Hints:
By secondary structure, this protein is of the alpha+beta class. It is 17% helix and 33% strand.
Amino acid sequence: MMKNVLWLIFAGMVVLVLLISTGTTGALWHDQSAVDADSISSGSLVLQVGGQEAYVFTALTASNLVPGQSVRAPLSISNGGSTDMVYGLTAVTTAAAGPADEALAASLRLTVTDDAACDGPQTQDTGLPFQAPMDATAAFAGRELAPSSIETLCIEVGLDANAPIAAASGSTAATFTFRGEQKL
């Protein structure tokens, strides 16, 4: 009987060794590698008028303007950013302090051409010449500028030939608002 017990113990040990060794044998392969991405950055968009982001257009000044007369001056628009841009005029506002000022502002007309020197005939570039009353409806869009490029426009402000007498001795100041957007 002792022999049977020894056989049982021996067989149990063999089974135990087999179970333990089977449970721990096996290989799990594992490795990892890091992939470094290059830098990711955004472009910049900088619309400049007259070489600045805020510009006082002193070249477009007129005194004693009479009906039918106009004043014009070149205005440079540039893309100081690193991405292609589409820009346009979004609004024109005028300041009026009294009835004569309001009548004058309502009688002004805006013409924009691509004649950089403001001395030649109007060309037929896409979207230009642009003509409108000098008010909030004066807007054009779709002018394209590559990074670091400059376009010079001719801005002309004229007093309507049929301006009312109420516009006499009026005075106003205009603000031209341009907007640039990334070209997609």
